């Protein structure tokens, strides 16, 4: 397992002509990046030993305001429930904190059945890392 961070442009080039799941992911990333130009966009990729992509986390940030927007989190169906999403969440937060970001804005969709588990992960990160995280417009209380 390894985690790599790409610019949006590099990710879109890497994912081109990949399977349909990652092409759909790339389309969402591309459209969101266009809608939020002027910010720094990154894609964190979780790869298995054979370089197979198992998960992706898309986020963007404003270093001057110390704000990070946590957007798409995808895990290939065959790798779900194996800790990859949690690892991508933790690595994204750690990377962002290491570059000086301290406020995180996240939207969890109500249709996401895993949302309660993700909420718990983010709450623990807020407590353990001393950061501010808003989920769906509400500050996580700790």
User: Structurally, how many domains make up the residues?
Assistant: 1
What's the total count of β strands?
7
Give the strand order of the largest sheet, numbering strands 1, 2, ... along the chain: 1-2-3-4-5-6-7
Spatial shape: globular
CATH class categorisation: Alpha Beta
In N-to-C order, the SSE pattern is EHHEEEHEHEE
The CATH architecture can be named as 3-Layer(aba) Sandwich
Question: Major sheet, described briefly?
Answer: 7 strands, mixed
Strand content: 25-35%
Radius of gyration: 15 Å
List the uncertain runs: none
**Class by helix and strand content?**
alpha/beta
Structure, briefly:
The chain is α/β, with parallel strands linked by helices and 142 residues long. The protein has helices spanning 8-15, 20-35, 84-98, 115-129; strands at residues 2-7, 40-47, 53-62, 67-75, 103-106, 132-135, 138-139.
């Amino acid at each position: 397992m390894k985690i790599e961070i790409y610019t949006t442009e590099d990710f879109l080039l890497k994912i081109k002509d990949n399977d349909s799941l990652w092409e759909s992911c790339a389309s969402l990333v591309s459209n969101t990046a266009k809608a939020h130009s002027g910010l720094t966009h990154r894609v964190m990729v979780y790869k298995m030993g054979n370089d197979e992509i198992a998960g992706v986390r898309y986020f963007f940030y404003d270093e001057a305001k110390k704000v990070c927007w946590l957007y798409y989190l995808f895990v290939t169906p065959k790798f779900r429930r194996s800790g990859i999403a949690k690892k991508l969440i933790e690595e994204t937060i750690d990377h962002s904190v290491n570059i000086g970001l301290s406020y995180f804005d996240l939207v969890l969709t109500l249709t996401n059945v895993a949302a309660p588990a993700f909420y718990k992960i983010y709450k623990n990160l807020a407590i353990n890392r001393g950061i501010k995280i808003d989920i769906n417009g509400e500050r996580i209380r700790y």
